[in-house]
Amino acid sequence: MGAKLTFNRLEKKFLLTEEQFLRIKEEIDKRFDPDEYGETTICNLYYDTPDFILFTRSAEKPIYKEKLRLRTYGIPTDTSTGFIEVKKKYNGVVFKRRITMPLNDAIKFLKDEIDLDEPTQISKELKYFLRFYKNLEPRIYVSYDRSAFFCKENRDFRITFDRNLTWRDYDLDLTKGSYGKLLTEPTQVLMEIKVPSAIPLWLVEILNELNVYTRSFSKVGNAFIQMITNNRSYLK
User: Fold this and answer.
1) β partners of residue 172
2) Number of Cβ within a 10 Å radius of residue 25
3) Buried b (16+ CB within 10 A) or exposed e, 47-75
4) Which stretches of the chain are assigned E, i.e. beta strand?
5) Is the pLDDT reported for residue 4 higher than 70?
6) Cβ-Cβ contacts under 8 Å for 198 (sequence gap 6 or more)
7) What pLDDT score was predicted for residue 233?
8) What is the CATH topology of the domain spanning 6-231?
9) What is the pLDDT of residues 98-145, one digit of tens each?
């Protein structure tokens, strides 16, 4: 099955203790199967302008926000597949558009040095994004170890569990591997529920039983806050 290139869904995030994770995982194992990537380390480079327009707007929690990232599944080599993604969120609904190509080509594409031999609608949208926000460059690296699952009855209903959320604002090269500062406590698990509509009742009941509530948690947003807190010169 080829990689899905467009997404339109609700995404809800929950920060779990180890005990809460284990209880929820019991039910997930009954109703879900691992997705095509299963257990993997996801590596991301988030792009922004020199004055951090995208990160700053996102931190203000507006009704509409967007971000650009280059992603790989696993620690990549230069020839690994890179996923170039624009992720937009409007009124709680997430829209994601992406294209894939070898990592080296993806880096050149994001520098606006190359185009596809046969441009697609999504690649044209990405090119417009690159030219609208001038001087976009990698600004923050974020990685995490993810376990991903899809519902047996509805493949569009997905749940992911992320551990070891790590970021850095130096060595902005995906091939260098996962290291940096932690975004959460080592024992915490970030759960994301990704569903086309409402969360099903059986899962709502488990979350209520465990006193688990949705929360706002942007990985790159939290990394950005740590970055500017640790180095005020970024804001000059």
Assistant:
1) none
2) 18
3) bbeeebebbeebbeeeeebebbbbbbbee
4) 6-16, 32-48, 64-73, 81-90, 93-102, 137-151, 158-168, 181-182, 189-195
5) no
6) 10
7) 57
8) mRNA Triphosphatase Cet1; Chain A (3.20.100)
9) 999 999 999 999 998 888 888 899 999 999 999 999 899 999 999 999
Structure tokens at 136: 């976009």
pLDDT computed for residue 234 by the predictor: 59
Distance CA 128, CA 146 (A): 31
Residue 41: name the closest of 224, 217, 163, 159 by CA.
163
Q: 217: buried, middle or exposed (CB in 10 Å: 19+, 13-18, 0-12)?
A: middle
DSSP 114-147: ---SS--HHHHHHHHHHHHSTT-EEEEEEEEEEE
The pLDDT of residue 1 is: 43
pLDDT tens-digit readout, 193-214: 998 888 889 999 999 999 999 8
Which residues does residue 160 pair with via DSSP β-bridges, in sequence order? 148, 192
* Over residues 57-66, mean pLDDT: 88
State the Cα torsion 46-49-54-60 to the nearest 10°: 120
